[in-house]
Design a protein that fits this description.
alpha/beta, Rossmann fold, 2 domains, seven-stranded parallel sheet, 12 strands
Length: 326
């Protein structure tokens, strides 16, 4: 008998076909998000789940889904999953690292360039019919080339962001939980800095740290005041890493020049204060959203799930101790 698996959101046909070759699949192609009760009900008789960051997998859910063996997240981050609870119950948790690094780095740069050159403000100006012709001081922005870039979180994605800076002849500072080996620093042409040094010296600060209790409001009011008044903050990692209310105040009063945001606290709910500001670029959590990358993410999650359900070790297992208990 094939193991049973739930796919919680719409995925690609090839993902379902791959899963169906190994499992009995229930899919949610209409893409109507499940509330916690509905998700628990659908998972009661399932051996595995391919889920998204919109699905909360916690101990309360695991307690009523005793057959569950694997939670395969279609994301590199997994703060929607209670990993310790999974481990305690022998449920393997997996993610999709690697396949989205370049696309997410591209989006960070998109936000950087758009906010530096006031692109969304300029487009709205044109669409509103307000543009009456060229003049010298129209929509003045700031240069990205030869500026100082500060990257907080120098993992796989952070390194790809740093590599792209070479084309703009930027100085690159970085802060990371662990300093990179000297040869890696040299290959990336980056300089290690303390958080305060990075905030004080950078023209652009890009956040690429995972969200956790330790990084909640990693950038708050006091941190924003340490930045240059001409600096631009980019959050392309996770909502909650930035205190959104503090950022809105900083953008209003000129503490910093601008921001580019792909993620928000309590998303998809948005602090309405952002909507009144012209000096912020807003995107709806699309960091990895290219067709090729999202297809690769979904297939990676499917392969993780199938490996777990057919006696193998998932290639992207985040809690190895769970396998010994499964």
């Amino acid at each position: 008998m094939k193991p049973k698996i739930l796919v919680t959101r719409e995925v690609f046909d090839e993902t379902l076909a791959y899963l169906a070759a190994h499992c009995e699949v229930e899919s949610n192609q209409p893409d109507q998000p499940f509330d916690p009760a509905a998700l628990a009900q659908r998972l009661k008789d399932k051996d595995g789940v391919v889920c998204c960051l919109t699905d909360r997998i916690d101990d309360a859910l695991l307690a009523v889904c005793p057959r569950l063996k694997v939670v395969a997240n279609i994301a590199v981050g997994y703060n929607n999953i209670d990993v310790p609870a999974c481990t305690a119950r022998g449920v393997m948790a997996t993610n999709t690292p690697g396949v989205l690094d370049d696309s997410t780095a591209d989006l960070a740069w998109t936000l950087m360039l758009a906010s530096a050159r006031r692109l969304t403000e300029a487009e709205a100006y044109v669409r509103a019919g307000d543009w009456k012709g060229w003049h010298l001081k129209q929509m003045l922005g700031v240069d990205v080339h030869h500026a100082t870039l500060g990257v907080i979180g120098m993992g796989r994605i952070g390194q790809q962001i740093a590599r792209r800076a070479a084309g703009f002849k930027m100085r690159v500072l970085y802060q990371n939980r662990n300093r990179l080996p000297a040869d890696v620093e040299k290959s990336l042409d980056v300089e290690y800095a303390t958080k305060d040094q990075l905030l004080a010296q950078s023209d652009f600060v890009v956040l690429q740290v995972p969200y956790s209790p330790a990084t909640h409001h990693y950038i708050g009011a006091a941190d924003l005041k340490k930045m240059k008044p001409t600096a631009i903050l980019i959050n392309s990692t996770r909502g909650g890493v930035v205190d959104d209310a503090a950022l809105i105040n900083a953008l209003k009063d000129g503490t910093i020049r601008a921001a580019g945001l792909d993620v928000f606290e309590n998303e998809p709910k948005l602090n309405p204060g952002f909507l009144d500001l012209k000096n912020v670029v807003l995107a709806p959590h699309i960091g990895s959203s290219t067709e090729a990358t999202r297809r690769a993410m979904a297939m990676t999650a499917a392969k993780n799930a199938v490996a777990a359900l057919t006696g193998g070790t998932p290639p992207n297992l985040v809690n190895p101790d769970a396998r010994a208990k499964s």
